[in-house]
Amino acid sequence: MDIKKSFAARNQGVEWSGIRIMFALADKIDGVVNLGIGQPDFDTPEHIREAAKIALDQGYTRYPPASGFADLREAVARKLARENRIQADPDSEIFISVGAMQGIFNIMLHLLNQGDEVLVVDPGYDYYSQIRLFGGVPVRIAAREENRFKIDPKEVAQAITPKTKAFILNTPSNPTGAIFDRDILEQVAAICQKHGIIVISDEPYEHILFDGNNHVSIGSLDGMQDLTVSIYTLSKSYAMTGWRVGYVAAHKAIVAEMEKLMEHMVSGVTSVAQRAALAAIEGSQDCVKQMVERYTKRRDLLINGLNRIQGISCIKPESTFYAFPNISSFGMSSWEFARHMVENHKVAMVPGSIFGENGEGYVRISFATSSANLEEALKRIEKGVPK
Questions:
Q1: pTM surpassing 0.85?
Q2: Distance CA 236, CA 203 (A)
């Protein structure tokens, strides 16, 4: 029996992650400098780890509430009001999720019907499989290098049809490091209000900002609170990728559906991880500032080094810990370039085409690694580029 014939047809819309494919390839090669990993190389700060240890001793080993512990939701509400200018009722408008990805999965399930269109930024994070899994159709909005990878609101307006249900917005942006400023967001907000489009605002890099740049949450803009599902994670800011804690702020009807589904999916976010999350949000933020200072130095090292290599050009990212260099001058696809570098010169990076059609001709390089690794990688890249 071919067991695959038993699979639901919707599974065909889900693809293996290109990032994971590159990781698997790099893992087979000894001595690789891995610049593909999208997670901090720092340990989770000590005060957060200590909070988890204390929680274990206090007996936080049982089922948590499906929407998250009340004191954590209250802390999230205070943080959202303080930092994001979003007012949310902790009892009905905040949901604790298994990282940001489960929040996105959850809202897709509730919003999308067969044939609904979802606007996505291209190049941008890979939301395509989640959209297709629930019958949705991704519609690409180009983010071009000549505009520093920021979207043009006029193109957003042109892309809307009667089938448009939602717009997934990721700013600060993975993989480009672009920040969509207030003017862009205000124009997008006006368009979405005119057409009744839900904005799914994925904001994992909200704290990793450079050169005095500011992050604006679209859910804070006038008229957008009920139209926005604001999604956050502790993974990037606090080096907590493995803890799997995120949170969602949305209209109470959406949060109620998320809570209902949570009971059937995973019961709730791990109790100990929630206690660590509370310490992260309520405790000193010096650890975040220190990590961003380190990222800033690494960014400058990497960007300056890339731009010295013949045939490569790279604009300086405003945020995140990614560079998105242009490698189109070599006449190779992004996959060909990435495979060449990992197989022949032991440097792992991510092909830009993974992030959309407009990512072709680019690669994503993470500088969430040591300066020594970056310096070694730059030497290998310079040696490996086609002459």
A1: yes
A2: 10
